């Protein structure tokens, strides 16, 4: 049952007059605000900290409330979300100036905190589609589901460039090359054209940190990007420049990571949240970003403060002063909002933070709220709850899943399969929708098992083929089977706990408490061996957030598919397995031949992966090439066929990877030259 909503009155003041220009409304409101009002607008608290006493939204003058991963109302239904958001909004509007609060959430592959929402493939799978129009539609559907629950702000998309698959957030990246990441930034348009404020993150270099540079138990997440300014601009900064200049993104989130410039010697890293050079300088002045900078979860708490005594409560005065002066506008202080406000007010009083910096931050926040229409329409409605998990959105997700599948090997044209074939399905990821969805699904770290409604890969296969035998571990008799389909890979994880060699998640499901690895788990390897040595023809699907090294078993595998983390619609996997749709996906990251090669990326010297960046066999009849794109696709097909036959010539992997990168960057002529070189052998 929704709460009765109070009427929103509109006194005759400029900032409440929708006919006035936004700039005039901002300035009119700003001059009416006290310092407490302004600092409140710069503060964001977590819903869990507010739920027992939502009047804190008013007493703290909060500018924003958020839901962290797994932080949901009870029951976890669209109507309950709308009710909760409106409750917080009622308190925000009870303040003298009636400034609406802005609710935010991490909807990074669909509105995946909400039970019943459409869960799309993670970004690594979307990068494999090479289809920016599809990505825009996926994020537009996400926006519709987010808005249907009363939320106007999404902390997505991640536009990081993932340079090391040992990183526990690698699946949040579209690609290892900035050109492809930039191509997929249509995600921003999908969200913002759908009425949701998009946030590009994590600014900048979070995917380029060095393994072993992180603090605590983490290995690479929140670590240090050791680089010079030229490489940083080319690899790590480029997606943000495009997001601002081409897509007018509304908000940016700094990274937990640090940057260590090699120009002045290695060993003096600066936390991104503390970098006035990169936030106030490069981002705001250099790139001309005029939107809102929101900190990450307690981001300023990681800023070193040598002046603070050991055991001081966080955030300290030094952390607040440094973070605000670096250029962040709103601060995600999930459980420490009151302390943040007290400390910042004291810093302004002492001169540690100038009022001009406060006013700059508040102008950006207010402008965002006016542009979103929150002053005219502060309350949400449950009328659009049917958008959440709708048939149309699930059909779109199924399409995205099919396009994301990358066919790495297909000996003898085994795929697509015949519907009439006797199929033996095995593997722990065949019938586990939680594993299929990955991290940031219902819980922060995801959840193995029946976490969400949807269709598992096994269920999807059974919907197509009438003669299916399933064995979780591959021990059931396989006599008479025409083909084995083994579905293996990873269990869910997210940042930190997903780092290879990182800590275990003590509160996650037992299946998730396995060492994170770039190779298949022993049980998965055993199932592959067990099935592929008994059944004459064997297909292996790898459901994972990153490549898994399978070189030692490749000889016994007839067809190998990178399925990534497809989400709730496993039917998309069956669509390509049985030829309802063709395989068209291409690797957005290099697939290593050995663990020792990692990190391995397109453009590296001595580039010899098992499958290069851009690799992806196609199935189906694509007809006679009639466009430049189709001609190039056909040439790639020919080149890959020659490689599979052992006639690609020396350096074929580097040539194909560079050809794909050139094509993405718009250099078709170079792509033609490189592909023809491979064909010539």
TrEMBL record:
UniProt entry tagged with the keyword Signal: yes
Transcription keyword on record: no
Pfam families (UniProt xref): Glyco_hydro_3, Glyco_hydro_3_C
Top class in the EC scheme: hydrolase
Similarity annotation: Belongs to the glycosyl hydrolase 3 family.
Keywords assigned by UniProt, alphabetized: Glycosidase, Hydrolase, Signal
Full protein name: beta-glucosidase
EC assignment: 3.2.1.21
Domain Glycoside hydrolase family 3 N-terminal stretches: 34-367
Residue ranges of every copy of the Glycoside hydrolase family 3 C-terminal domain listed in the record: 406-617
Domain of life where this protein originates: Bacteria
Catalytic activity: Hydrolysis of terminal, non-reducing beta-D-glucosyl residues with release of beta-D-glucose
UniProt source species: Paractinoplanes durhamensis
